[in-house]
Amino acid sequence: MKFKVSSGLNIAASSWGLESDPLVVLLHGGGQTRHAWGETGEKLSKSGFHVLAIDLRGHGDSDWHPDGEYGIDNYKKDVVSILQELEKPAAFLGASLGGMTSLSIAGDQELKEMCWALVMVDIGLYPNLEGSQEIVDFMNSGGDGFESVEAAAKSVSNYLPHRKRPRDNRGLEKNLRLKDDGRYYWHWDPRFLDSRPKDMPEDYKERQKDFAEGVEIPTLLVKGAMSNILTQKEVNDFLEAISHSEFVEIEDAAHMVAGDRNDIFAAAAIEFLVNHTPLKAN
């Protein structure tokens, strides 16, 4: 399915479950697509939730912005536009970039009626800069494309040696696009990285902190035990800003928690959401 949002862009989404069930919106990390949530979406729907996984602008099957506008505020406006169309509040389950976008909505006092719970997946108020740069370097390493899906899989395997390699590459293939030159490229607009500041502006850090301090809904922070994006410092800062937040650490998982240990991650997210779910809509 696709939504035409206020910016005029078409935003792609996948849906699971009954529309009468409480809504959970899944927002992926930078350079990923909605397909990163496949297993999680199915498990959440079987637990009584209406689930919507969105391709952020410039990613997957969503439109690329003609001027390369890929800031948190841009993603935020797109998601808010979708929720206004659905006329239904949501729990946000956001990984990395998706988590920062979720926080900017959940902590916005003018939008708080749109959210009933917040799950931050391996991201605090903002990412650890050193760890974030490692991810950016990996993303840039595929700039010239890959000769085959297998070559892309090998690149991912080298970058994530702790993760067991899947039996086939069908899942990975959804995150690639085949261009006319016969090479496979990551399924996102390269200008997405160009919009990323080399240093984290202080005003952005302050704004994210302000959003966090404005969060009143039930909140869960999920950390991959091996993560270099959400270090103990970022955990401490987050739990100080949102003192009512619950915290879970997933063993044998790095930054891509949902992909590394989906069984444990999904169980923790489901337990949290079930405990805090609102009444079903009539």
The name of the CATH architecture is 3-Layer(aba) Sandwich
* Cα separation of the termini: 24 Å
Number of strands: 10
Gyration radius (Cα, Å) is: 18 Å
Identify the overall geometry: globular
Name of the CATH superfamily: Alpha/Beta hydrolase fold, catalytic domain
The H-and-E topology, N to C, reads as EEEHEHEHEHHHEEHHEHEHH
Order of strands, widest sheet: 1-2-4-3-5-6-9-10
> Whole-number average pLDDT?
90
Instruction: Bin the strand percentage.
Output: 15-25%
Structural commentary:
It is a single chain. The protein has 282 residues and is α/β, with parallel strands linked by helices. It has a single domain (2-126, 201-276), classed as Alpha/Beta hydrolase fold, catalytic domain (Rossmann fold, 3-Layer(aba) Sandwich). It is built from 11 helices and 10 strands. The protein has an 8-stranded mixed beta sheet, sandwiched between helices. The chain has a two-stranded antiparallel ribbon with strand order 7-8. A hairpin with a 5-residue loop joins strand 7 (176-178) and strand 8 (184-186). Helix 2 (72-86) crosses helix 3. 41% of the residues are buried.
